Amino acid sequence: MNEAFKALSDPTRRKILQLLKERNLSAGEISDHFNMSKPSISQHLKLLKHADLIQDEKIGQFIYYSLNTTVFQDLISWAYDFTQKKDKNGGEEK
Predict the structure, then answer these.
(1) Can you tell me the mean pLDDT for 55-68?
(2) In the chain, what are the domains?
(3) 20: buried, middle or exposed (CB in 10 Å: 19+, 13-18, 0-12)?
């Protein structure tokens, strides 16, 4: 989970995730949305993949990236549990 939070701390990587929310994209299609070099985009994709926030799949000669929604569900679950107030016995207060 630490890697996921680290990856989410960067605005470029958050924008990549927003793009992938709409549809799966190749690295070239992703880089078209940014004013930076393709190697820089590749580094961002590498960090997102290392954090398990995205997955890749080779189709023909292109690699397409997609969101890994399982990790997002884990993060949301953690955040929800974090915000719930516990009673003195460790249960949720009513």
Answers:
(1) 95
(2) 2-71 (1.10.10.10)
(3) buried
